[in-house]
Amino acid sequence: MSRTTLASIQTTFADIVPANIGDIKPEFGTSDDVRKYYGIKKGTLYNLHKMQKVRGKVLRVTGQFKGVRLWDMQSVRACIHAQEESRMGIAA
User: Fold this and answer.
1) Using the 8-state DSSP alphabet, how is residue 9 labeled?
2) Does some domain include residue 10?
3) Could you read off the pLDDT of 55-86 as tens digits, one per residue?
4) Chain segment 6-40, per-residue pLDDT in tens
5) How far is CA 39 from CA 13, 22, 62, 64, 76, in A?
6) What's the domain range around 38?
7) Nearest-angstrom CA–CA distance, 92 and 86
8) Residue 13 forms part of a structural domain
9) Does some domain include residue 43?
10) Which of 56, 91, 89 is nearest to 75 (CA)?
11) Three-state SS at 30
């Protein structure tokens, strides 16, 4: 049986580099994520959802009353772009 030394472990861990995920945009996010990325507060999100401008789904365990609402980040981006285009007079 080979003996593992501290030096061999350190060289192994030194080769591990974390992935660069800074450019990856999430598909779904919580209200806090939407606020972090776009600055839209929770109440505004729920109003946009009520007007069917953004999509969201509640994720919960079967049989549970409470869950977490996840927002479709692409629909949030689309809502922002649509509002920008309507203000500029561009036909969507």
Assistant:
1) H
2) no
3) 999 999 999 999 999 999 999 999 999 988 88
4) 555 555 556 667 767 677 788 999 999 999 999 99
5) 38, 18, 32, 30, 11
6) 26-88
7) 8
8) no
9) yes
10) 56
11) coil
